[in-house]
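Project standup — Tuesday

K.O.: blocked on the structure for the chain from last sprint. Re-posting the sequence here as requested.
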Amino acid sequence: MKIGPQKRLASQLLKCSEKKVWLDDERLDEVKEAITKADVKTLINKGLIGLIRANGQSRVRARKRLEQRRKGRQKGPGTRKGKKTARLSDKERWIVRMRVQREFLKELKTKEIITVPTYRNLYCKSKGGFFRSKRHIKLYIDEHKLNQKK
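H.V.: unblocked you, prediction finished:
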């Protein structure tokens, strides 16, 4: 006796293709005896008929790429899509810049390299977007001789 009808019934019950139905090779005689849907259902519950799981997408390459990116690789111009502002918004870039500059100014004040009025002046300039970077602040202090002599 053929097992085609059993496979068809099982595929209907499992809601899949007949190709995806798995039958236990060692107990095929029991599978052949199943005639009704109820019989096939009991065999599914027993584990004689099952579903072949589809292979998922392998994440091996994705994990490797992620590991490399954490090290700072694979982030060059060939990988980038979109504008600079799409990857990091203007506001976020501004926030990062301000935090760096304010931290630096606070450090100069606590080490008493600059006076409080000078700190205030530089702080306001920084807030107004006068300085491009931390290095620019250093340059400005040296050019205008704002560092306090000990």
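K.O.: great, moving the ticket to review. The chain has two domains: 4-51, 87-143. The two ends are 103 Å apart (CA to CA).
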